[in-house]
Amino acid sequence: MLLFAPGFSTADKISDISGRGVGLDVVKSKIESLGGVASVTSKAGQGSKWSIQLPLTLSIITAMLVKLGSEKFAIPLSSIVETGIVKRSAIRDLHGAKVIEYRKSIIPVLSLAAVLDSPDYSEENELETEMLVIRKGEKLAAVLVDELIGQSEIVLKTLGKYLTNLDVISGATILGDGQVALIVDPNALIK
């Protein structure tokens, strides 16, 4: 932690300008002002491990942007196994639940519009739709969406204290065109 001390210098010779640059003390104070923690752990002969932890509000994730009617949603790419198009005739009813055959196994099918109660999207008249296969541990599920927009790196923002009853939504992001997209938590979709 000596490295983070104000005025610390690694110069061989001390002069009038030693320790006058932007040092690690400025880095540490900036990280702490954002609500994060910076630390260094060292082992003699093995090296040092630098650790910077920032709050979730400053996380940048790669996500798949999807569309339901006029609304856009983001699904973290780390949970997506595959994307594709599925015919409505391939979706079967099994004991009241919708399922589909995927790579020689049967997986449940979820309509994102039904889960999120999307007001301006109806999937009744379509012969085929786009789907995302998501994973939670060993479990897989197919999530039906209106349209796949594409991958994007997004900044994750929390919803604050007021919207705590939304289990499926983990946060929000502002897209490049200024539109707000809610971030879907894939873990909440698979029971």
Structure in words:
The strands form three sheets. A six-stranded mixed beta sheet has the order 5-9-10-8-7-6. Strands 11-3-4-13-12 form a five-stranded mixed beta sheet, with no helix packed on it. Strands 1-2 form a two-stranded antiparallel ribbon. It is mainly β and 191 residues long. It has two domains: 2-54, no CATH class; 58-189, Beta Barrel (OB fold (Dihydrolipoamide Acetyltransferase, E2P)), CATH 2.40.50.180. It is elongated and about 80 Å long. 10% of the residues lie in helices and 47% in strands. The model has no long low-confidence stretch (mean pLDDT 85).
CATH architecture term of the largest domain: Beta Barrel
Q: Count of DSSP helices?
A: 3
What's the helical proportion of residues? Answer: under 10%
* Biggest pleated-sheet summary: 6 strands, mixed
- Extended strand count: 13
Summarize the structure.
By secondary structure, the chain is mainly beta.
Layout of SSEs?
Blueprint: H1 24-33, E1 37-43, E2 47-53, E3 60-68, E4 71-76, E5 80-87, E6 92-94, E7 97-102, E8 105-111, H2 112-116, E9 128-136, E10 139-145, E11 147-155, E12 169-174, E13 180-184, H3 186-189
Parallel strand pairs: 4-13, 8-10
Antiparallel strand pairs: 1-2, 3-4, 3-11, 5-9, 6-7, 7-8, 9-10, 12-13
